Amino acid sequence: MKRYRSAETGVELLEAGRSTFIYPDATSSAWRDFLAWESLGNIPEPPVARPYAASEARRKKLWIVGAGGFGRQVFSMATGAIGAGAEWHVAGFLNDVPEALDGFPGYPPICGGTDYEPLADDVFFCAIGDLAGREKVCAGLRSRGAHFINLFEPNTLISPSAVFGEGIALEGFTGVGSNARIGSFSFILGHVNIAHDVVIGEYVQVSPFACLLGRVEVGDGSMIGSHAVVLPGIKIGRRATVGAGAVVVKNVPDGETVFGVPAMRLR
What we know:
It is a single chain. The protein is of the alpha/beta class. It has three domains: 1-53, no CATH class; 60-143, Rossmann fold, CATH 3.40.50; 150-267, 3 Solenoid (UDP N-Acetylglucosamine Acyltransferase, domain 1), CATH 2.160.10. It contains three helices and 26 strands. The strands form five sheets. The protein has an eight-stranded mixed sheet, with no helix packed on it. It has a six-stranded parallel sheet with strand order 9-12-15-18-21-24, with no helix packed on it. The chain has a five-stranded parallel sheet with strand order 10-13-16-19-22, with no helix packed on it. The termini are far apart.
């Protein structure tokens, strides 16, 4: 019969002569095996005392705001992000629909709504995909003293001269060049190239495999589609949309949507 032992940020599978750490990741078959074992009424063995481990008193509690599809994706990302387990641990979700995780086992609970009152040891990350909703919820939590952290996956390449706001996600295999600036609450998804001197505003989403070349500027609330390429020095306006696969060769005004090669206004 399998044996498991509780650990700081997951469980250990105990086998002859070795133990294997398992993150609480719903995409992991090992974690799902543990949940099935636990559902039979089994209880993990108590954790081994580790004097060198991060203490609960020092670690912050990370609340993921939003428990939809993007929230679940952020949870998986957070388990391996820089600082996980040492500086903070995921305490749970905040979501105004308490049943949002029904049918999705393996996640921490929804412990409150977006009207949550922050405590001294709390930190936050907003995982609400809808732009208007994200802006409203972040503004409300900020007004109550919430501190948002950045989630950077370890396999990113970041210039030491790059500048970041707060509440930013950088997924794996993304590069951020020298003197680039990324505004608060922006999501930079996997395999994105952000070149030197690029300026990205707040609440921007850059989708996988997009490429923003030198000195590009992207206004607040805009979205850059997958595999899009924005040529050097181009300015993308506020709340504009660049379609998947587009090649942007001239400036895009506020609120405009462009698609194609070269990118043209969507009529």
